[in-house]
Design brief:
Multidrug-efflux Transporter Regulator, Chain: A, Domain 2, about 5% strand, about 110 residues, mainly alpha, globular, 4 helices
Length: about 110
């Protein structure tokens, strides 16, 4: 039985790494930090932002609402104020459906 090494997860990510995950400029992440109370990264002694997985989940939620769904910042704030968990549940469902679709496309291509 082959041993599979568990991937080490980072505790903190830089603003550059977070911006790269979403293909946006770091300045947009800083802007969203000022606009949305959800995003509150820690800062080290130098003042560099250190994002946790939870912070990145918050950025993902805002990205989904603003960039993918086309909400205004005010509209996104209202959605999050009313029911953040409902927004996340819908995002998770969409992600799952996209994965199923990709799998089905792959199966269809192999059968062709």
């Amino acid at each position: 039985m082959a041993y599979k090494e568990k991937e080490i997860e980072k505790l903190y990510y830089s603003i550059g790494e977070v911006a790269e995950q979403f293909n946006v400029a770091p300045s947009l992440i800083r802007f969203w930090e000022t606009e949305f109370d959800l995003i509150q990264p820690k800062k080290n002694r130098k003042g560099n932002r250190q994002f946790t997985k939870e912070d990145i989940d918050h950025v993902r939620t805002i990205y989904h609402l603003v960039k993918e769904k086309g909400f205004t910042l005010q509209g996104a704030k209202e959605m999050l104020k009313n029911d953040t968990q409902s927004v996340r549940d819908k995002m998770d469902l969409l992600d799952s459906l996209k994965k199923v679709r990709a799998f089905m496309v792959e199966v269809r291509e192999k059968l062709s």
